[in-house]
Amino acid sequence: MKRVHIFDWHKANAKKVEEFAGWEMPIWYSSIKEEHLAVRNGVGIFDVSHMGEIFFRGKDALKFLQYVTTNDISRPPAISGTYTLVLNERGAVKDETLVFNMGNDTYMMVCDSDAFEKLYAWFTSIKGAIEQYTKLDLEIENKTYDYVMFSIQGPKARDLAMELFGVDINELWWFKATEVELDGIKMILSRSGYTGENGFEVYFEDANPYHPDESKREKPEKALYVWEKILEAGKKYDIKPCGLGARDTLRLEAGYTLYGNETKELQLLSTDIDEVTPLQANLDFALFWDKEFIGKDALLKQKERGLPSKMVHFKMVDKGIPRAGYKVYKDGQLIGEVTSGTMSPLLGIGIGIAFVKPEFAKPGVEIEIEIRGQEKKALTVAPPFYDPKKYGAFREM
Amino acid sequence: MIEVGEYKVKEGLYYTKEHEWVQVLEDGNVLVGISDYAQKELGDVAYVELPEVGKEVKQFEVLCEIESVKAVSEVYAPVSGEVVEVNGELEDAPEKINEEPYEAWIAKIKPENLEEDLKNLMDAEAYAKYLESL
Fold it and tell me: Who among A15, A245, A319 is closest to B69 (CB)?
């Protein structure tokens, strides 16, 4: 099983440590609910070092990335990130990623923990195919096991960044990054997150005692220090270490898609029978049509043909918690399937995301979710699920 | 209360390997709930789908479902019999199961064959040993 740099700390402090996508990860330390509410009301810190980091270096790196991802990453200056998708030839989502322009023809792609291996193989094979015709000035390197990534999220994250790094994250636009230092430890800090709240993420390289390459297995020098330093500084805001359980409930309350649930592609050895394109998952904002990219033709064809299903958010009206795989009905007729669902720790009701026939994919539609053989009433809504005036990054102070 | 690490085991109850507890009442009926170990494994209990009164259950078959924030789990009937009452308080306060697992009973069952069924269960000491082995 794969493990992050400071796995030992998590093992000693988390009440639940479990396998997630091949990684042995903290699921909760105290409780999902407590951690979730800490992020909505104060601040929480997540060790998300299981996220993938793939580096692209060389004069052709930008051109290559423009071709293998959907968004325009040529414009944001160093250092900033762009949310961009990797698609297969059929237009289905291979992963949702952030690509950071690091300057000096270097780009860092932050991708999902269950996708980085297949992405690395995919990019390497495309590079190989292109190089049969023309040599590329491009080096692709998978640094997933080497990079530490911590995510600090919540309305108090700004104060914490100010105090620890002297950076006002509200001065950075979303996904803008900057180099910072903490007691001599250099890292990249970006304004980003996956909770709906204001927040930032820090990235730096460190030794990993669980590195798959045995020759690289060494005690981390910085990760634990940084983790504990942030926890210490956050004490006055009641900071909580947060596990992957709260990460999932927070992203769902914010209405964000998750690769593997909402976005997916058919893969060898996978039991999925479904593929999802960005058009179906409301990710059009990440499609830059004025360039060529893998999957573009398939998307254009799908636009012409019409979508087989489309994503919609819904909340339960009846009691009950929707879960991935549950069937969705409208007036007794099957119209789709739930892809994510939970009990919203903030609202105390069941919430979820489903893919339904496109005509029902709009707010205000009364639908039914089949829960253990019973049809329970639900209503489609526009995300986020919480009141954006009271919660989230754009709350009124 | 017997303590096994962070887990509490209440004396005087019977337990299943799936971590349900049974309390035998004076009138011969039994109360059924889930153990401290079970609630800690589940995490925040968010919903209890109570069984219907009148439901006939067989020992170790599904009695009802209990949902944490993260997942759905099944609660198995520790004894065969008929559900004669359910704890309606859990409908609005499922978190009681986390707070007081040995108070928050889920269902009252009128057992069919209690003496025989109890032979398939563990007493508190045996259950504590079982937890140690996990």
Answer: A245
Q: What is the spatial distance between Cα A32 and Cα A25, in angstroms, rounded to a whole number?
A: 14
% of chain A exceeding 70 in pLDDT:
99
Q: Which of B45, B70, B72, B75 to mutate to test the interface with A (most CBs of A within 10 A)?
A: B70
Q: pLDDT at position B112, please?
A: 97
Strand, coil or helix: A43: coil
Chain A residues inside the 8 Å CB shell of B90: none
Answer whether B69 sits within 8 Å of A32, measured CB to CB.
yes
User: pLDDT tens digits for A223-240?
Assistant: 999 999 999 999 999 999
Q: What is the dihedral of CA B25, B27, B28, B32, to 10 degrees?
A: -40
List residues of B whose CB lies inside 8 A of any A CB. Answer: 40-41, 43-44, 46-47, 49, 65, 67-72, 91, 98
Mean pLDDT of A100-114: 97
Residues 208-247 on A with a CB inside 8 Å of B are 245
Instruction: Tell which residue, B43, B38, B15, B18, has the closest CA to residue B128.
Output: B15
pLDDT band at A272 (very low <50, low <70, confident <90, very high): low
Closest CA to A148 of A185, A115, A173, A123: A185
The per-residue pLDDT for range B78-103, each reduced to its tens digit, is 999 999 999 999 999 999 999 999 99
**Distance (Å, whole) CA A136 – CA B21:** 66
The residue assigned the tokens 């210490």 is A232
Nearest-Cα residue of chain A relative to residue B37: A15
Which stretches within chain B are classed as H helix? 36-42, 89-92, 96-99, 114-118, 124-133
